[in-house]
Design brief:
Radius of gyration: 21 Å
Bound molecules: 2-acetamido-2-deoxy-beta-D-glucopyranose
Order of helices and strands: HHHHEEEEEHEHHHEHHEHH
GO molecular function, one term: calcium ion binding
Shape: globular
Structural class: mainly alpha
CATH architecture of one domain: Orthogonal Bundle
CATH superfamily of one domain: EF-hand
Pfam families: SPARC_Ca_bdg
Strand content: 5-15%
Subcellular location: Secreted
Largest sheet: 3 strands, antiparallel
Protein name: SPARC
Number of strands: 8
Strand order of the largest sheet: 1-2-3
Organism: Hyalella azteca
Amino acid sequence: MKQQWFVVVLLLVAAAAATEKQKSDKKHNKISEIEKKLDALLELEAELENEIIDAAKDEEEGDAEEEEAQDMQREDPKIYQIDVQEDPCAGVPCPAGRSCVVTMSGKGACQCVTACEEETDPRRRVCSNHNETWMTDCDLHRQRCLCEDGLAGCQDDKYKHLHIDYYGQCQQLPECEPEDLADFPRRMREWLFSVMRDMADRHILSAHYEKLEREAEDDETQKWSNAVVWKWCDLDGPPKDKVVSRHELFPLRAPLLTLEHCIAPFLDSCDPNDDHKITLKEWGVCLKLDEEDVADMDDLCEDIRDQEAKPVKKI
Ligand SMILES: *[C@@H]1O[C@H](CO)[C@@H](O)[C@H](O)[C@H]1NC(C)=O
């Protein structure tokens, strides 16, 4: 669900930028800035999906079911390609770098992908947590898989923990200048609000978020806080545990890192106690909302979730 959601959002966001451009002249320079980011975001939608699955898998590491699947693989090295008709892989989502294969015993198991497509486009490259460039996200995730499973082709044991730091070739990221960082919360809020507005225009926000969006349109004081709440609620989950973990920030961080030099220090500043969890209040503070707004935000988000659990009648 989440992956699909992101794809939809990214597409819409791109369209948003186009509409925005026609709509408003005075925001012209801001919009072209946003558009640049969106182009990059669009290209990356596929990688995001993978990485989200990957992140989900990380959290499940040590999961008994998975171990079982791996044991099965070892006993049963002969594999068949999947038959779509009676597909034992149908209910088996594989993390990035793995694909489901049907074992002799007729079960689906996630095994390292055998090969990645040749890719010469430098835009497909990814920079790892070791500051090493990989040709594609597929190559990176495949390498990690080989190391996790102790297979031939694993280049170094450390690659068990390989992950994407950001999209694009590894590079000397320009320093985030203090004045840029200081301005970052404002730009982030603008961006969040324009994404939210566009989704509302297209009626792909839930009725309750649409209501928040209308409130934001009508009441200048609600403008930022509603967009900020919406994004936070969206980043959190599933499971909706009322904190946004570092993993959950991935969709925001990785695509923007090479374009927005301040995104990493900014997101770090949202987690001042460095527990790798961002509460809604921390999020609000770091987006520089008014203290009063921050104080109210918890309830607002809770409301939304409660209401969303029930079926909603669209007006
Ligand atoms: C990462 O690698 C790039 C390119 O090889 C280099 O320019 C940069 O300084 C490295 N960054 C760090 C933090 O080591």
